[in-house]
Amino acid sequence: MAKTSDMSHKELVQTVLKSPVHFLAFGFGSGLAPKAPGTLGTLMAVPLYLLLVQLPLVYYVLALLVATVLGVWLCGESARLLGVHDHGGIVWDEFVGFWLTMLMAPAGWLWIVVGFALFRLFDIWKPWPIRIIDQKVDSGLGIMLDDILAGVYALVVLQVLAAFIG
């Protein structure tokens, strides 16, 4: 398979839509956005979160763990097939990071918006040690781990805000 740097956007779209691995890793196609694929991928995670949040907490956590383990493989395999370390369109990690952010979040759209904003802030900013992990850890684990840590940072801030604002 040609490296993504050698592919046109149209060829990338065709590649992603033909492969279940790429289709899932690219967030059901949301990662194909030419601008801000991570933000669009996170936005695509919201309706799925609205389904997940209906589950009892133990099943939500179990689904999160399954999505994480699956994501390590999906993201790594998609990157390997595309011949890149972490293609910007691979957004399964954004799904998991957002779902982690929203773990035990208060109900309501305000909290979804705040969680979304906090996750994107930490994912883009990459405070210590997220940036180091993003640069140094290869494979699907590296792709997933920086977003998991961004999700943990956002989760902590969201829970602190919820405790004070209510």
TrEMBL record:
GO cellular component: plasma membrane
Catalytic activity entry: a 1,2-diacyl-sn-glycero-3-phospho-(1'-sn-glycero-3'-phosphate) + H2O = a 1,2-diacyl-sn-glycero-3-phospho-(1'-sn-glycerol) + phosphate
Protein source organism: uncultured Thiotrichaceae bacterium
Name of this chain's protein: Phosphatidylglycerophosphatase A
An MF annotation (GO) of this entry: phosphatidylglycerophosphatase activity
Signal sequence, start to end: none
Highest taxon of source: Bacteria
Keywords, in A-Z order: Cell inner membrane, Cell membrane, Hydrolase, Lipid degradation, Lipid metabolism, Magnesium, Membrane, Metal-binding, Phospholipid degradation, Phospholipid metabolism, Transmembrane, Transmembrane helix
Its job: Lipid phosphatase which dephosphorylates phosphatidylglycerophosphate (PGP) to phosphatidylglycerol (PG).
